[in-house]
Amino acid sequence: MERNEFIKSLGLGVAAVCTGACFSACGKKSDSPEPSKPNGGGVPPGTTASVDLTTQLLTVGASVTVGGILFIRTATGNASTSFVATQAACPHQGGTLSFIQASNYIQCGLHSSRYTTSGSILAQPNDGGTTSALKIYTVTVSGNTLSATA
Ligand code: FES
């Protein structure tokens, strides 16, 4: 074998070993699990959602979810203090949160954790897990449009 041929074959061998190692590493799944609730179930910071107050949230206790934000009317009138906006996904494992008007609390449909409209925890999940307080978003009213920004 000529010297040049030997060097070329050596280079190809090293390249093959490196490529194999890279494919092997890339094909493995990570040992660390993906987070099940990125951002604690809240929407990404800066996200804005809006509600048309001429057609939605007409009565005290009404609620609606728009863009991952749960809006609740807590008082009459269209002042910003008449509404609460919070995350619509549970901080525990992302279950859907709903406002239970008759009990005046927010409840998760997955493991039944409960929260006040100010985001405090009333009851932990029924699966033995632990949840955290809800994010409360600032609301503004402009004309007949209610908006919240995460
Ligand atoms: S996902 Fe809401 S309590 Fe588990």
UniProtKB/TrEMBL annotation:
Domain of life of the source: Bacteria
Residue ranges constituting the Rieske domain according to the UniProt record: 63-148
Keyword Acyltransferase: no
GO molecular function, one term: metal ion binding
InterPro entries linked: Rieske_2Fe-2S (IPR017941), Rieske_2Fe-2S_sf (IPR036922)
Short name of any one Pfam family annotated for the protein: Rieske
PROSITE patterns in the record: RIESKE
Organism: Pedobacter soli
Signal peptide limits: none
Keywords: 2Fe-2S, Iron, Iron-sulfur, Metal-binding
Region (Disordered): 28-48
Name this polypeptide is given: Rieske domain-containing protein
